[in-house]
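Hey team,

Filing this mostly as a record. A colleague (T.K.) asked me to run one chain through the structure pipeline before their review meeting, and I want the input and output archived in the tracker in case anyone asks later how it was produced. No errors, nothing strange. Just documentation.

Input sequence:
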Amino acid sequence: PVAAAHQIEAAGVDVNLQIVGFTIAGKAVQQQLTRFAEGTGGRYHSAQDGETLARALLIAAVEKMPFEVFDAGGQQVAKGETDSPAVELPPGSYRVVIQAPGQELVAGNVTIGVRGDAALKIVLKGDRFELER
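Output structure:
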């Protein structure tokens, strides 16, 4: 799988494989699919029933998520999508709300200082998204 991923890349094809395995029980096959997906910068998602299949497909298909930024008074001061350029805000404390597939991610007390910046990272842990600072 890793060699195949390198061949795809060497051929000039820009691809990021998100592989969803439905009811695949064999660990060896799951490991091969994981290596193949990761070799292209993607991920392998396992699903054992209809509910986890729907969630895995949704996670695999998401490239960007909408977000809103609120100031200390609760007023919306910015909004956009996670793949858009950075949002410039004056110094202060903010709350960021991201609409991830099937869940809402909230980062409270995001502080921007004078000449400072803040970054939030969305990570996938299992089948749930989480925010890291």
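Quick notes for T.K.: The two ends are 33 Å apart (CA to CA). The chain has a mean pLDDT of 87.
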